[in-house]
Amino acid sequence: MSISSSVARSAGAHPAWHISLLSLLVLSACGGGSDDPASGSMRLSMTDTPACGYDHIYVTVVSAKVHQSATAVDSDSGWYSFSTPGLPKRIDLLALNNGVLEELGQTPLPAGNYTQLRLVLAANGNQAPFANAVVVSGSAGVLPMERMLTTPSGQQSGLKLNVNLAVTPNQLADFVLDFNACKSVVVAGNSGKVLLKPVMAVFPRVSTGFAVDGFVGNWTAQTAVSLQFNGVVVRSTVPDQNGHFVLPYLPSVGNGFDLVVSTPDRTTQVVTAVPVSGTTITRVGSVATPISLLASTSQALTGTTSGVPIPDATLEVSQLVGIGKSVEVAARRVDSETGGYSFSLPTAASHTATYAAAPAGLTWSPYPASAAQFTVRSVVPGLPTQTGAADLSGGPMVLNFAY
């Protein structure tokens, strides 16, 4: 069964996810759309993973382009731009969850490997609404509450991403650009500036299988759902207004994935041994029997990363879910001026359940040793990763990293 047919028959399925896949099935079957046997074409769309503390993250896309050389500069020949009606377009990244895509266009290309992708953003004006902006969670959400998102590189040469995108003769190469807003938006001290330090990935867009969806109950606006492999996040999203989530376009099949649901004031709950198929969608929970999140108290974990230039430092927080097994529950960039960070983390023990296909229910078991216990990794590009332990059983904690 294809994803499109599976979603269509599921109550509460996200309509935009369904529509985008139906159009994909039609377009992918058309090949490259070129009469030249030595050329194909490429289509590019954009999606997003959850953000931290923002109701909206806007970027205004002017164009997207690719090149076969990873070192090509603007003045070099060999750039190919995607043609999309309606660009420039102001896009809310946080609306691109649960498989929803923003199409960036399609272009004929000579067959070969393309190793550089650039996303060019519009320059900001002098007043709201800015071309690129954020709205902090809890604000009124009106235009005066917007804060300009500073993107100097994106306004000039474009946000650069090294890729490996293969175009074969007379075929459509279909890719999704994943913007990780949570790790891309960086606060700059007391200056009031918010910077875009993009963390992006590109992966193939597929029309059948390679996806997990399901339902969460008792969720909040801060709930994140991720599919992880050996504690590394593969895809993440947030539940929609019905508690429905979709994690599409997965890179591989198998039974070794963990579905992680994390919220500051809810117990971390993990479904283990989740199967991913290349032909069908995997559903975890249902409208009638969602993953019901258990309440938990929370405590603050704060600190700084200092001693080196820190704009690109990232803090990753993990929690044990069994002996020798942990999952990531939160991650974000540090303040680019102060190196500071802050997390609100649940103090209850994590719970796990082994995947069971519907109509069988999930049987949850706590891991008592995990209560209020976390491991924090400070990741600075080009330097050894530092690790610290956080025990929040006694209340808030400060954990600093120095290089």
SSE map:
Elements: H1 3-8, H2 15-28, E1 39-49, E2 54-67, E3 80-81, E4 89-92, E5 102-110, E6 112-121, E7 133-136, E8 147-150, H3 152-156, E9 159-167, E10 172-180, H4 181-184, E11 185-188, E12 193-196, E13 200-204, E14 212-217, E15 224-229, E16 232-237, E17 244-247, E18 254-263, E19 266-276, E20 282-284, E21 291-292, E22 298-306, E23 314-322, E24 325-333, E25 340-346, E26 350-354, E27 365-367, E28 373-379, E29 386-391, E30 397-398, E31 401-402
Parallel strand pairs: 1-10, 8-12, 14-20, 14-21, 19-26, 22-30, 22-31
Antiparallel strand pairs: 1-5, 2-3, 2-4, 2-6, 2-7, 6-9, 7-8, 10-13, 11-12, 14-17, 15-16, 15-18, 18-19, 22-25, 23-24, 23-28, 26-27, 28-29
Explain what the structure shows:
The protein starts with a helix and ends with a strand. The chain is globular, with a radius of gyration of 21 Å. 42% of the residues are buried. Residues 1-35 have low confidence and may be disordered. The protein is mainly β and 403 residues long. It is built from four helices and 31 strands. Helices cover 7% and strands 49% of the residues. The longest helix has 14 residues, at 15-28. Strands 2, 3, 4, 6, 7, 8, 9, 11 and 12 form a nine-stranded mixed sheet that branches. Strand 28 and strand 29 (386-391) form a beta hairpin. The chain has two domains: 3-204, no CATH class; 212-402, Immunoglobulin-like, CATH 2.60.40.
Major sheet size, sense and barrel closure: 9 strands, mixed
User: N-to-C terminal Cα separation, in Å?
Assistant: 52 Å
Helix content: under 10%
Question: What oligomeric state is this?
Answer: single chain
Would you identify the regions where 5 or more consecutive residues have pLDDT less than 50?
Answer: 1-35
What is the structural class?
mainly beta
- The tally of structural domains comes to 2
- Strand composition percent: over 45%
